[in-house]
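Order emerges. As here.
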Amino acid sequence: MLSFFKKSTNSKDTNEASVAVVEPVQDTDASQDPVAQEAETVLHIHPEWDITVQERYVYQFHHAQLPKLKPNQISISKIDVVSDDDSFMVNAFIRNTLSKSIRFEEVTLLLLDTEGTVFARKTFDLELMGDLPANTCQPWIFLFSEEDLLGNGFPAEEEWRIAFELKKKAPSEHQLMLHESWENSLNDMQKTRLYEMVNNLPPLTAGEINFMGIEARIGENSDLSVTLLIRNGSDKDIKVEQLPLCFEDASGELTAKGAFQLTDFEVKANTSKPWTFIFPEALLLNKTPDLSAWKVYPPQS
């Protein structure tokens, strides 16, 4: 493993790396003294890594050159990179100054040039890394390939850094999203009622998607018209092409069942979107349903 490191021991050149903080935890114990707020880490080698005494010494040398961190931070700093054909082995330190150990699952890492432009991006499964103890610094090797490069190749020696890709936070409030046809057909009073409804609903859990009934009525053609609020509590937009639905009236009996084809139907992240679904009379199992209470849901697979 020692051949991974460059022979140069110039600490100012070899270990200049930025610290990328991921979701810092509020510090309630550190004093207001900037020096007192600095956190020390100790080198931690994964128990399954079989390294020599000399290799450990090299890691200790690089660890000693790292900039100080504050308490309650997670950071990543580069050590070196070795290219092999169309792959790049990036050696980096991950540091934890929390008061407890942490475990990573999937993380997305960015490689940036001196201008801060991302030239490589890749998501890694760090389950094998296991727990990173409190106030420790652990080296890990990340394999990037040519396919992960976004630009014209890897920059020259030392002209790069590594960072976590920080996820964008969802808006603090769940929003109502109206299709253009709804925007044009609803009056101001109807829109206001919908906005108030969305604002007063219980919050969704992270990633939750559900359907809330707004109105059900029998139309002039004896069809069943059902208006739903499709709520997307995830941080990603969802697109729906086909939506099978079951409808039960107040008796609890299945009243209608059908599959609806949708075109360019999208519900943005952290928004709710109303939509009306019409069951033709031919699909009604009960032509005179009791609509004093009802529910609609996708059929169980």
In short: Confidence is low (pLDDT under 50) at residues 1-36. The first strand starts at residue 42 and ends at 43. The two ends are 51 Å apart (CA to CA). The longest helix spans residues 188-200.
